[in-house]
Structure formats: structure tokens, C-alpha cells
Write the C-alpha cells for this entry.
Amino acid sequence: MASPIPQAGGATPWKVKRPYADQVENSHGKQYQNLCQFLREGFGSENRSSLPIVYAHDFWIADRNNGVFNIRQFSASAGRGQDQAHRSVWPDFSSAIRDRTDEVDIRIILSTCRSLAGVNEAYMDDMALACDLPPNFLCAHFDRLSRTTARTKDYDILLPSERSFLQLLNVGDCTLTAFIQHTAHGFLVVILSMGSSKSVRQGPFPFIEGFASHLQTMSQPPDQPPADLLYSFVRSMIIQAERIRRTLLRDFEARFRFDSAAKELNIAQRQRDGLRYSRDSLAEYVKLPPAVIGPPSLRLASLVAEYERLIEGLNFVVIDQQAFVQHIVAMKSIEEAVRGIQQADSVRRLTIIAFLFLPLNFATSFFGMNIKQLDTGTVNIGYFFLLAILLGLLSYVLTVSVKPMEASWAAHKRKVAAAAAADWTVYGKRSTLSFWSKWHWNALLGRKNPVPSKTAASEPRLQLTDYTQ
């Protein structure tokens, strides 16, 4: 039996004897002597300084029996070249987890990680299988912990029907994620921690002692701890919802912060989905028979209503954010349209300038080809200026008249479009022009009712049918 865990900060080393350390030595001889010594003597031994600090991933198993914690340690990866040896050790380690699960009221499996480069994913899957965890649970959580940047001490909890996932963020200088499984005799706790090498060298004492005190609360009647934890969780979600609202208002003033608005919308939607999942799990938990969860609690029953109100508030936040994102997209479209109009106007101005200077370039080119005549005096240089002035005035007149001509043409088109069908009647004999050519010419001249000739006065007129009625 291992010696009890010393108090935090104590200098007394302790030793642990493990049955699977002998298994490693019997199977592989002295090849892994350092690993066997490490497994036998554990963390905090006198020989700790002589052991190579190459382990990327370590496990501690702590059993509390009659209020006393006993701890054992296991290294899952001492290097990529030793995966096969470690895999042969795993059955004994798995048996150590299963054999004593029913004999203790709390079992803690603490895993500290300094670097994920040498972690064997097969061990993660085997450990998840031994603890009845979903496949790839540990690997996925280690991957998430390696990317987390949260710095908070709040507790977030999700309650499936039979299990509790408790996430502790930034405990000390480490990031923790714990899995709690209710057993017939107590709790099976798996704590995953991602921390610096300094926190790893301090050992599991700060984590186990701090978490054990928290488990005392969870050892109370089952309906009370979820309510206590979930109320703090709901309050933190309300704070996040208010923060999203403030960000929404700030982004609305900026108008074009689309990336930030889309990010906040994604966060709000994920929070709403998480709350719905937690609410459904809590509703299943409340429906369990009283023999399992104890006497009914009004506080726990009211917690479901708190969830409903919070989800309804998040729905309003999501709706507001969706409308805001659509508003930003519309404003972006209008901005692009205005920019396109400005570019078209710039092109039009450049075209007018080119139209003005093109005749001058022609005059310059004409006299440039007759440079010899200018040199001999047969052609007077004044002709160049005279021609340039005349062409410049002609270009200016044509340039200025373009806009009124466009306005006049647009006015005639609007007049013809607004005229009644009776005004399009054709009188007299068939003209040598085609019908559409004559109508087009009359429209250009602004004629509505041409006066019929005397020879055509007695002719029957062709009345077009009014299809606009």
C-alpha cells in the first residue's frame, strides 16, 4: 500500500510500489531500467533528479479510501521508440484501474502534459476504453487543451444522463479538463491537465488537493451539486450574452465590422446549442427515480425554467445578430455600387478629355509630318495655331453638346413611352419607309399626330389596337 500524499509544499519524499513495474522488468530486462525505477519510486523520490526529464506525458492514479489518498504514477510515453514496450505495460495499468474502482469512494486519474509530440494516441484510446469514455475522447480533449487560450477560473458543466463533464480552466498555471463518472460506490474522476514544465515538477498535489475539496460538495445529495454548479454556469452565460449585446451595439456603430459580427454570431449560436444540450440532459436527470437522485428539489426544478429563459434571450441575440449581419452585407453592396458609379464617372471624364484632345493631336501630327515646309517657310506657323484653335473650339462645342443631346434623347424616349397607343396611328397611303422606320423618325422629331395629306384624307386610316388597356 502506498503512503499517503504529503501536504502541499512538504519536503518528505514518498515511494510507491507497483505490480506492473516488475512486469516491465521481467518482459524487457534492463532495457528500460530508468522507466522501471521511475514507476517504482514515483514522483518526489530521492532519485528524481537523476532520472531523465524526457517524459512527455505522465499519469497519476490517486485512490481515496476512508478519507486518505494514495497515489501511483505511470508514464505513458518516454519516447517514440518505446511505444511497443509501453503498450505491453498497459494491460496491468488498465487492471489496476478496474480492480480497485469498486473499493474506493473517489478515484482520480491525473494526467499532466508538457508536450504532445511524444504522446501515444493508442494509450489515450485504451485509457478511454478502460474508463468507459467515448472513443477519441482523451485525444480530442488534449488537442483542444493545446489550443486553448482561456484564462478564467469559472466552472462549466454539462450533464449527460449518467455522466458529468466538468471543465476547469486555468487552475494555477495549468488548464484542466476533468471527466467524472458516477459509480456504485463513488466517483471515477479523470483529470487532464495542460501545463508548463514548472507545474509538472510540482507534482499532482495542488490538483488533487484542490479537486478533492470540490468533490466533497459533489458527494452530497445528487440534485444539489448540479444546481449549485449550473447556477454559476447560467450566470456566466448571461454575462457572455450581455457582452455579445454590447459588442453588437459597438459593431453597429462601426457599421462595416463584418468579421467581428460573424464571429460573435457563431459564438452565440454555439452557446445556444450547448445550453439546449445541457437543458435536455438536466431534464433527463430530473426524470430519474427518487431512489437514484434523492428527494426532489425545487431549486433543481426551477433550474430548467432558468435555462428556458436564458435560451430565449440567446435566441433574441442570434436574431439581432443575423439581422445585423444582413444589414452589413446590404451596406457593403451599396458601398460597392457607389464605388462602381464613381469609377464610371471617372471613366466618362477621361473619355471627354480624350475626345477634346484628339483633334489637337491630329493637328499636331499633320504639321509634324510637314516639318520641312515649316523650316523652309513655305507653310506659315500661324496655320498650326489657327487650325488648333478651330479644332479645339469644335471639340469643345461637341463635348459640351453631348450632355444636352443625351438629355433630349432621354426626354423623347420618356415621352414616347408615356404616350397613349392612339397617338401612334398612321394616316394615308403606305409610305416608302417602313412602318418602324417612320415611327422612329416621328419619335425623334417629337411628332404625335402628323397632319394627313389631302389625297389621303378620304383613305381609311389604320387604327392600331391599344394593347395597354
